[in-house]
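Section 5: illustrative case.
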């Protein structure tokens, strides 16, 4: 949901009183309640918007005073009944006069005269006063300023908690009175409303004031659109106009079941769904979303639109629109805008550790740079590199395909259950699968010796890969039923029997069934299947001493089978002996 709307509402709520009145904690609570009510219409995305803006510290505390948004423009400010003016006459004897414009629209200044002020700007009235003062006070100059703006009543109707008239000044905009109309709890129901609730106990729908489709109706019958979100996010004051005497502010109620929305996603600061306004355009929605991120492709912005019973996808050059080189594009209800990222090579990192000339991190183009290229960046292997035990470790990925940080392990039990549930495995196969899954690691299948001897294809790397090249210690490890198990210096061409002899020879408990565990792959090999290499392990197993019960358990089935066969043979013999 719209992550920006809250900021607009809160900002408008904070600046509501012209007379520098401190905001109370009660007003803050009402303001928060109003926001929660508004954004609940947008579902779960509305709550995420509140959390997002809280994280960005965009929910300001209430302001103790009101600062004017700008100095008053004397050419634009139109005077009317109730304005208090200050006149300063600078001469040999300075004179300061203050006077309020009467309900008839006239300004009365002692010793100077009465002037028609209604409907005139400060500049126009100043010129009239200068002519009069020049006649009365020779060689004098005059200053005219607005000492206090007039106040008047404005009507607020619709989805607000306090419908009716509210006090505003000529400097106020719609947002101030809008908040005033929501700053208090609704009045208690009268007798007629209580009776109606007893007869019709259905709960009335909650009030959720629209922030983008407010109408300001003037006394002369003209109207102006009010879009508080657009005003605060783009600074377009046309959509938060100043108030006049007799204005009526009409606030629609949001209806989630049939609310029109527009959305923007992709490479923008605040991608979200937004309440639709009939004045929305492509550039407007882009600005409401606080503009693009660093690598946004503004030349190929796509609008997805449901029209004539089918989806249409339209592409526009938003960069030209923002520069004024192309006309803006009006949006329709339920349009979705997609701002794509520019196409560029994704730079990743891999780490190389161990027996290379320059270990460390190296930049790669993910899914393009190869193992050979990275080893070349690292200066190649050192003489003591043990390629048979070299490994590439690939970090597990999240559901979005992004490598998980090293300190966040994947949920292996969940992955295992996901794999088993769709398989047709018996109990023995499941047990074997659990064993293999528990021993698995996120290795990339790579035979470094074959790859760097051009006997196997090169490996394409991904962002986050870890390449480990262990140093060859030049030893063979002999363990099991030998007199002195441990590491023995590797000598090329030496047989497994020689290594066992150097380890003190086999003990009496040895079965003689020697196995060799290959370095790196940990394959179990018989001695006749492989030569001993540096880093290999030689395992001398122990005889298994069976108990009497175990021996009987093995013999009993054999004896039973023999007895059965003997009995069967005897029966056959007896049958064929009969005459």
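Designed sequence:
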């Amino acid at each position: 949901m719209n992550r920006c709307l809250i900021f607009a509402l809160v900002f408008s709520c904070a600046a509501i009183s012209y007379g520098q009145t401190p905001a109370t904690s009660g007003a803050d609570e009402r303001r928060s309640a109003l926001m929660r009510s508004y954004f609940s219409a947008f579902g779960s995305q509305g709550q995420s918007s509140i959390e997002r803006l809280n994280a960005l510290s965009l929910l300001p505390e209430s302001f103790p005073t009101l600062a004017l948004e700008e100095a008053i423009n004397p050419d634009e400010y139109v005077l009317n009944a109730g304005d208090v003016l200050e006149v300063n006459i600078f001469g040999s004897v300075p004179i300061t006069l203050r006077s309020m414009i009467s309900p008839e629209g006239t300004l009365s200044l002692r010793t100077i005269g009465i002037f028609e002020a209604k409907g005139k700007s400060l500049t126009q009235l100043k010129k009239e006063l200068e002519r009069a003062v020049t006649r009365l006070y020779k060689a004098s100059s005059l200053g005219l300023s607005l000492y206090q703006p007039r106040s008047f009543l404005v009507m607020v109707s619709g989805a607000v908690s306090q419908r009716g008239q509210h006090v505003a000044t000529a400097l106020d905009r719609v947002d101030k009175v809008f908040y005033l109309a929501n700053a208090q709890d609704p009045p208690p129901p009268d007798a007629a409303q209580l009776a109606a609730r007893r007869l019709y106990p259905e709960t009335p729908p909650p009030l959720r004031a629209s922030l983008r489709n407010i109408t300001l109706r003037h006394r002369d019958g003209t109207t102006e659109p009010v879009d508080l979100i657009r005003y605060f996010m783009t600074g377009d004051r046309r959509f938060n106009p100043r108030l006049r005497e007799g204005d009526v502010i009409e606030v629609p109620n949001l209806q989630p079941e049939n609310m029109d929305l527009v959305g923007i996603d992709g490479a923008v600061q605040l991608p979200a769904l937004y309440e639709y306004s009939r004045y929305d355009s492509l550039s407007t929605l882009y600005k409401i979303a606080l503009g693009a991120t660093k690598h946004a492709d503004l030349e190929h912005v796509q609008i997805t639109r449901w029209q004539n019973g089918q989806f249409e996808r339209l592409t526009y050059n938003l960069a030209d629109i923002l520069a004024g080189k192309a006309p803006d594009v009006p949006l329709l209800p339920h349009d979705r805008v997609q701002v794509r990222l520019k196409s560029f090579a994704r730079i990743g990192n891999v780490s190389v550790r161990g027996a290379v000339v320059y270990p460390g991190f190296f930049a790669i183009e993910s899914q393009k740079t190869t193992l050979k290229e990275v080893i070349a960046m690292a200066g190649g292997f050192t003489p003591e590199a043990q390629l048979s035990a070299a490994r590439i470790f690939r970090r597990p990925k999240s559901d979005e395909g992004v490598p998980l940080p090293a300190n966040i392990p994947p949920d292996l039990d969940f992955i295992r259950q996901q794999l088993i549930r769709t398989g047709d495995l018996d109990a023995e196969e499941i047990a074997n699968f659990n064993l293999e899954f528990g021993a698995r690691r996120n290795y990339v299948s790579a035979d470094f010796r074959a790859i760097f001897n051009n006997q196997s294809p090169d490996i394409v790397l991904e962002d986050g890969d870890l390449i480990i090249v262990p140093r060859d210690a030049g030893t063979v490890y002999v363990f099991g039923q030998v007199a002195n198990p441990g590491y023995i210096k590797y000598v090329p061409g030496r047989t497994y029997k020689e290594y066992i002899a150097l380890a003190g020879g086999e003990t009496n408990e040895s079965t003689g069934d020697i196995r060799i565990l290959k370095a790196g792959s940990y394959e179990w090999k018989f001695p006749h299947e492989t030569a001993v290499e540096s880093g290999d392990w030689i395992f001398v197993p122990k005889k298994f001493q069976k108990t009497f019960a175990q021996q009987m358990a093995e013999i009993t089935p054999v004896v039973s089978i023999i007895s059965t066969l003997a009995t069967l043979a005897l029966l056959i013999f007896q049958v064929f002996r009969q005459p």
